[in-house]
Amino acid sequence: MRVLVAFAGGLGHYGPLAPVARALVASGHEVRVACQASAAPAVAADGLDVVVTSAETAGPVRLSALLPLDLDREDRALREGYAGRTARSRAADLLALAARWRPDVVVCDEVDFGAMVAAERLGVPHATVLVMAAGTFVREAVVGEPLRALRAAHGLPDEPPLAMLARHLVLCPFPPSFRDPAAPLPATARLLRPGAGAGAR
């Protein structure tokens, strides 16, 4: 089976996906990982086939004082970056990749909205791997408008914007106690212990 593993962010988004990608390769599947250029060396060091996409979410790393928490800034980055520019760019890049190498399934991080749209356009399922334990960051009030626009731009039907995130399998690599009770796991979620495989909810 051909599996496209995709993540929209930096290495913090790759970490939860890495055991899944390695397990797929160990099971004999053909795996390609699509990521930004800054993350490609770490993915390649894992022995995985890497495809660099154009969306770069991380600037050059420089050490500085820890910034105070600014929820408005974080929401803006999610809305305008991940659900906006990055999602548009990644959807286009992954659809172009699929014209040369068509996956049977897409496995992506929970904010790779472009990968989810690309999978839907291709008519293949996607599995979402959670990268944020609490479950309260991705909210319809923040990402609803850009995700509706993204879906419309790709000729996909209008639906509640967060529906596509849990349409298929959701893998949660965090202990359930880390999850905010106000944001329960969806019915499609399965707990995943790195190195141990998927288990029941």
Automatic annotation (TrEMBL):
Keyword Transferase listed? The answer is yes
MF terms in GO: transferase activity
Q: Which residues form a coiled coil?
A: none
Q: Is Mitochondrion set as a keyword in this record?
A: no
Keyword entries, A-Z: Transferase
User: Boundaries of each Erythromycin biosynthesis protein CIII-like N-terminal domain copy?
Assistant: 23-143
Q: What name does the UniProt record give this protein?
A: Glycosyltransferase
Give the organism the record lists.
Georgenia thermotolerans
